[in-house]
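Lab notebook, bench 4. The sequencing result for the construct came back, and we need a structural model before the next group meeting so we can plan mutations. Quick request posted to the team channel:

Model the 3D structure of this chain.
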Amino acid sequence: MDELVIMAAELGRQLKRKGEVLALAESCTGGMVACAITHTAGSSAWFDRGFVTYSNLSKVEMLGVSLETLDTLGAVSEQTAQEMALGALQFSQATIAGSITGIAGPSGGSRQKPVGTICFAWAHKDGRIKRSTQLFRGDRAQIRRQAAEHALLGFMTVLNQ
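Done. Here's the predicted structure in token form:
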């Protein structure tokens, strides 16, 4: 069985045991994490919804990300990731939400934000927020997969704090 699906199923067991409900805001992974989650039968008990917000406009319209944040820091920033996660919480029935935004390549990178730069945030209704920036190596598919795995691990970390 695919490692992402195994990780998502374990996350689901933890969410269900704790009575938590999840929402996602994905950009560069394009719904990959939601796909792994919904592969698990019964995931509707602990997964409310996923937002695929690839464009900046969709981040603003669907998640309430600030235009100022996007203009100042760009879509690939921890602040944008945090606003995405908080928006996913606000516009869902979830108790915990996470976001992924980054540069999967092969183009789009810069000296300050090279290909493989991925920003994450996890937010809980109780006010806990965790942010992270990672630099992954590999081709586009490998970077996206590593980002999805990191997001799932981040949820488990936040749940067990």
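The chain is about 45% helix and 20% strand.
Will bring this to the meeting.
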